[in-house]
């Protein structure tokens, strides 16, 4: 690597840029070169996958130092990236209390509250005075807590009684009891709550952390907002990839194995391809018309793509609005009304464009013959119908999927386009029969 | 509203559910019913748009109480939602120091650091002892700071010298100087940094807040991570909507005006429609073939949609990977190589499906005549070519757009599908001429 061979000192930014291109040996050399403190910083900002790869590429005696930099929730994520043998090796490197914490966290799925939480939070007892609570925090727990933004008030069985922000504790008169200043009405989540739900709570209430409790309201840990930024980003990536008509990759594009990527893409592609075969069947019924007026066939892609595109717009909007809880199941009629109006408007605009195209296209380029006006009207009317139909189908499909208990995000642009292609052909040839029979057909 | 008329007390959740459906009078009644404290909570969790609507719907003498609940950055967002007359009215309701802060914030665009930041942060001087700093924070600023997670060390001209977490300040021996425990290497951002860049910094470094500084490194405010969750969500919404082939709406689907929505959707739809007209032109060149073998026309939608769908997948993946900085401009060749392999694999799968479809489709449903095998080969080869071409086009278009300084997110599924439609037809008819000339053509 040219960047690594020159004499000037390597900066963290350069290493970050070059990282994904380096072999594991070059990575080790680079880490040595930038020095211990910078290497630690660099390690901490890697994602769990890269952290795991880095630790495993180290000689056994150097692994421990890196692994111990991580708080238990992050260590659990790294361990989760490894296969079973490596897991045991890495777990053996942790100190006893951390190993117990990591083991407890490994029991949870990565995408639920238990898998996101840190077991290290600041806690005090209700009967303490404010002064005592501050000293207690200062002397005992501060080493072992991830955030002191909120201080949780628990009883001896770890039941969650209330919460106070560190700021409020700090401002309160020293002689007051913690129980007098705490807020009892705490927003908490169960261990198995999905990360997407949790992120909505964070946004709704502008929180910095949320406590995770078991059925008996005993505190298990806290989820902090910095982890939620990652969650929101991940969920958006999943939704975007689904909207492109495939399964979510769950791995960075350049790192996923080729076979895995083909598998994740081929499924939907094959389903869509087989559904699209219906277009060939539908067109089989109109083969006579096509043979008599081949000019009709030349407009097929134009007309069905107009429906597919307006349908993609509508489904994309509705799926996203559902993900943000802006649109709920019972809003289907409001959405339908909007798409009826929008679809008609858009259909008229495109219909007019299509009409103009056929009427003003220079005669020396293509001759539509004596039936130019009739053809133009056929195209215009079909486009209006297909765009309107596309908007309705695209906007209602996510409701249908959700109503059936399926993921509305499956209403991807390609899926909607495929649905609309088949029906668009039927609309087109029906309109053509109505307007052109006796003239061209 | 049935929910509001029954006798049981209204809960916050019910109000939240019903809110978007209520008239402004019903909203006021509902707020009175749930009581002052809950009404305040409810108001604080609304977004800026709804907060503005609520405040403006109140009689003038009740507006002040709600508006003053807001920290200056949120108040600025609310004021920004109003038109000019209302703005002045609302500004007059703020107390003097807040008005000055809000005014300063209004000078920034909503989506850059200055527009996101809060001017209320905890600051100390380097020469203070830890004990002095804690007392200083406790006595003076705590009322007026948004977070004490980080404490910023500034000189008398507000130049940023360093930072310490509150936790570290709290743990340090009381007699040490602040300058001895502070970290000097602070990650800060300029006032005009775009929010998307800022959110990347937050994720990379797991920060809870980032200071905003001017050119002279003077501290202007802090951006806190809870605002970043919103930013990530907003940016994802924009990207998703663009991926559906339209401009980002920038407003919730159910609230945006119909005319605005049509405008945001019609632009791209018209561009795509006009580009798709090229398919009609392309097919004009093959009208003879179509007239001679109408069966060829029946497969047109199937073949071009296969290319469009695989292209949508590729562009969606690459656009998202670029947004997450997983893929950079110089990675184009690595992406091309992956898509060459993936596209070939996917093309073979779909080609085989198409071949099987024609060979095994029961004779009594559709008779392809004596040339069944030749037709099946034509379809299979065309599908392989079109899918491969779609994958390459879809994956390279975002690179091209970015290289030209345009937004790679414009490489939407419908845009790619349109590009591939035109070229897909040419591929199809070229393959058909090669295989079928002398047989069917």
Task: Fill in the keyword field for this structure.
3-stranded mixed beta sheet; disordered N terminus; 6 strands; 6% strand; 441 residues; mainly alpha
Question: What does the model show?
Answer:
2 copies of one chain form a homodimer. The first copy, chain A, has 441 residues and is mainly α. The first copy, chain A, has helices at residues 2-5, 12-18, 24-34, 36-45, 48-57, 60-67, 72-80, 84-93, 96-106, 113-116, 130-141, 166-171, 178-181, 195-205, 225-243, 258-284, 287-292, 294-298, 300-323, 332-360, 372-403, 413-436; strands at residues 122-124, 150-154, 160-165, 189-190, 209-213, 219-224. The model of chain A is unreliable at 1-7 (pLDDT under 50). In chain A, 64% of the residues lie in helices and 6% in strands. In chain A, helix 16 runs parallel beside helix 22 (413-436) and helix 19 (300-323) runs antiparallel to helix 20. A 3-stranded mixed sheet of chain A has the order 1-2-3. Chain A has a 3-stranded mixed sheet with strand order 4-5-6.
Short description:
Two copies of one chain form a homodimer. Chain A is mainly α and 441 residues long.
* Count of DSSP strands of chain A: 6
Q: In DSSP terms, counting alpha (H) and pi (I) runs of 4 or more, how many helices of chain A?
A: 22
User: Could you tell me how far the N terminus lies from the C terminus of chain A, measured between alpha carbons in angstroms?
Assistant: 68 Å
Helix content of chain A: 55-70%
Biggest interface, CB < 8 A: A-B, 111 and 111 residues
| Protein structure class of chain A | mainly alpha
Quaternary structure: homodimer
Low-confidence parts of chain A, pLDDT < 50 over ≥5 residues? 1-7
Q: Tell me about the biggest sheet of chain A?
A: 3 strands, mixed
């Amino acid at each position: 690597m040219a960047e690594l061979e020159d004499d000037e000192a390597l900066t963290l930014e350069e290493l970050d840029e070059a990282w994904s291109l380096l072999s594991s040996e070059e990575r080790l050399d680079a880490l040595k070169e930038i020095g211990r403190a910078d290497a630690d910083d660099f390690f901490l900002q890697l994602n769990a996958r890269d952290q795991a790869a880095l630790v495993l590429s180290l000689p056994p005696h150097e692994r421990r130092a890196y692994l111990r930099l991580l708080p238990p929730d992050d260590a659990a994520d790294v361990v989760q990236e490894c296969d079973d043998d490596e897991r045991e090796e890495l777990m053996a490197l942790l100190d006893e209390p951390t190993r117990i914490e990591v083991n407890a966290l490994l029991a949870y799925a990565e995408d639920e509250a238990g898998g996101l939480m840190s077991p290290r939070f600041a806690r005090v007892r209700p009967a303490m005075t404010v002064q005592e609570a501050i000293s207690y925090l200062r002397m005992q727990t501060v080493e072992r807590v991830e955030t002191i933004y909120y201080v949780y008030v628990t009883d001896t069985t770890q039941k969650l009684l209330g919460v106070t922000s560190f700021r409020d504790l700090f401002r309160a008169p020293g002689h007051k009891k913690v129980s007098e200043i705490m807020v009892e009405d705490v927003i908490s989540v169960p261990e198995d709550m999905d990360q997407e739900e949790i992120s909505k709570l964070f946004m709704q209430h502008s929180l910095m952390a949320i406590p995770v409790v078991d059925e008996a309201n005993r505190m298990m840990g806290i989820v902090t907002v910095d982890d939620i930024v990652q969650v929101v980003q991940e969920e958006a990536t999943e939704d975007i990839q689904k909207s492109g008509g495939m399964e979510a990759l769950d791995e960075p594009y350049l790192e996923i194995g080729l076979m895995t990527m083909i598998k994740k893409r081929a499924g939907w592609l094959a389903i869509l391809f087989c559904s699209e075969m219906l277009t060939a069947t539908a067109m089989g019924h109109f083969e006579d018309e096509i043979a008599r007026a081949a000019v009709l066939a030349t407009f097929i892609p134009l007309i069905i793509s107009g429906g597919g595109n307006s349908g993609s717009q509508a489904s994309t909007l509705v799926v996203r609005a559902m993900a943000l809880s802006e649109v709920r199941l019972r809003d289907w009629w409001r959405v339908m009304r909007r798409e009826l109006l929008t679809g008609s408007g858009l259909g008229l605009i495109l219909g007019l464009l299509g009409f103009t195209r056929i009427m003003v296209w220079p005669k020396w380029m293509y001759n539509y013959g004596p039936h130019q006006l009739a053809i133009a009207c056929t195209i215009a009317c079909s486009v209006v119908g297909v765009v309107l139909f596309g908007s309705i189908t695209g906007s209602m499909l996510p409701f249908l999927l959700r109503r059936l208990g399926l993921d509305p995000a499956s209403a991807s642009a390609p899926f909607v386009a495929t649905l609309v292609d088949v029906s668009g052909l039927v609309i087109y040839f029906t309109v053509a029969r109505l307007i052109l029979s006796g003239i061209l057909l």
